[in-house]
Write a structure and sequence with these properties.
The chain is of the alpha+beta class. The protein has ten helices and seven strands. The two termini are 34 Å apart. The protein binds zinc ion (ZN). The site of zinc ion has 5 residues, from loops.
């Protein structure tokens, strides 16, 4: 019998492959999900290209980005991106870090991505920038230290996405399907914005339009429809992930929720 954790692990594997198939993730990049039974943990694949991720690759991590079981496999080096954002944002349920070709010109040129069509409104009015060099000087540009992850989470602030100078972007969502929609539409928006520049100066959506279009495009019926569409495309390409193996499901007990401090609880209630 499938349980809730097995269901979300299978959905997370599917999200990896959808985001790869739609050109957001490539050999690199990753997508995570807050644990459905324990907000003090999150789920993320072992180090593997997202197009290949299977449910059995998904591991559990604390919000300090430590695996909850001694790992026998290689882990993503940039997982602090996920843990630090989950710590800073109790409202965030899913995170995707990527280097999509559509957004890279903006991350390289330091030019803002602004909503230029209605579905682009899902990324919100502003996408802030974060330059790792500002605070940490010369690095290999990977976000691997907790202080680097915290700095990125501060730059993200209350926004839905942050552009990382000369590196990529990180996108967050209040649910996995919402995140997938936002990440894909943000890339489509960046492509349209770039193409429109060859015709003239693109007119961004008005502030009120961003608010109205942004919220309607994240309604459950809309994100369910887009999820179904992108799943169908993945299926047609013969790239669906396998089901989780039964032994793996049986071995992994649902964890007891980790302790949430009163401060975190108050913050969560406010949001
Ligand atoms: Zn990266």
């Amino acid at each position: 019998m499938p349980d809730k954790v097995t269901d979300v692990i299978e959905e997370l594997a599917l999200a990896n492959r959808i985001l790869a198939h739609e050109g957001v993730l490539d050999a690199f990049g990753h997508v995570s999900l807050r644990h459905p039974a324990d907000p003090g943990r999150y789920l993320l694949s072992r180090s593997r290209s997202p197009a290949l991720v299977e449910p059995d690759d998904i591991l559990e991590f604390t919000l300090d980005s430590e695996p909850t079981r001694p790992p026998k496999v290689q882990l993503y080096s940039e997982r602090v991106i996920h843990g630090c954002i989950y710590q800073a944002r109790p409202d965030v349920i899913a995170v995707c870090h990527h280097h999509a070709p559509a957004i890279m010109p903006f991350a390289v040129a330091g030019k803002p991505v602004v909503p230029v069509f209605h579905l682009g409104a899902t990324m919100g009015e502003d996408v802030p920038f974060w330059d790792q060099h500002d605070e940490f000087g010369d690095t290999n540009l990977l976000v691997v230290k907790p202080e680097e992850g915290r700095s990125l989470a501060r730059a993200l602030g209350r926004h839905s996405a942050v552009l990382m100078d000369r590196h990529g972007a990180t996108v967050v969502g209040g649910g996995l399907k919402e995140l997938v929609s936002r990440a894909i539409f943000m890339c489509q928006n960046a492509e349209y914005q770039m193409r429109a520049l060859t015709l003239g100066v693109p007119q961004p959506l008005h502030r009120g339009e961003i608010k109205l279009a942004g919220s309607i495009n994240l309604q459950p019926n809309v994100v369910t429809r887009t999820w179904e569409y992108w799943t169908m495309r993945l299926e047609a390409a013969g790239a669906m992930p396998p089901r989780r193996t039964a032994t793996k499901a049986a071995r992994r007990p649902v964890p007891k929720p980790s302790r949430v401090t009163p401060r975190e609880r108050r913050k969560g209630r406010r949001r």
